[in-house]
Specification:
single chain; alpha+beta; 37% strand; disordered C terminus
């Protein structure tokens, strides 16, 4: 693999950059699997609440069926040069049973409230157990920045960001 002039970031910098992306980005690739039907991957809108990723999908979608059967999931942000992978277990909330603050924050970020739609939706919450982040070959070593649900460096205050798509602390 050829180097592209990337300067290797420290773990704290990777965490800061990862948390900023989790707050500001819109889409995440969700990878699920079913014991009989195999893997499935789909992009979904997501919200980072400071501790977990919240997504929403149709209650009868393949993703919904898979996470009910096998809750282990992998999430990835869409940039293949600035890789962020999260692993955790999905917790499911029918649209009429989702915690109000999460549903309101999701609706506020996207201007869409699945609870008001016809048909049933499922909110999926994933608390990461492992997070990996890297930019190119120079950062492959040390790419794990969270293990067993614990950040490997002192967690920046941004990790406790409020339920919103913009946090002024990102601009400091």
């Amino acid at each position: 693999m050829e180097s592209t002039g990337i300067v290797r970031r420290r773990t704290a910098e990777r965490m800061r950059d990862t948390l900023e992306r989790l707050v500001t980005e819109r889409d995440v690739w969700v990878s699920t699997a079913h014991p009989e039907h195999g893997p499935h991957q789909v992009p979904l809108w997501f919200l980072w609440d400071g501790r977990a990723v919240w997504m929403c999908t149709g209650a009868t979608s393949v993703t919904a069926r898979n996470v009910r059967e096998e809750p282990r999931v992998r999430l990835s942000l869409p940039d293949t040069f600035d890789v962020v992978l999260l692993q955790g277990e999905a917790e499911c909330f029918p649209d009429q049973e989702v915690p109000g603050d999460a549903a309101e924050a999701f609706a506020g970020k996207f201007g869409w409230d699945p609870r008001a739609e016809e048909g049933s939706f499922l909110y999926v919450r994933v608390v990461p157990r492992t997070v990996r982040a890297w930019r190119g070959e120079p950062e492959l070593r040390g790419r794990v920045i969270m293990r067993d649900g614990m950040w490997l460096e002192q967690r920046p205050s941004l990790a406790d960001a409020p339920l919103s798509d913009h946090d002024p602390r990102l601009e400091q």
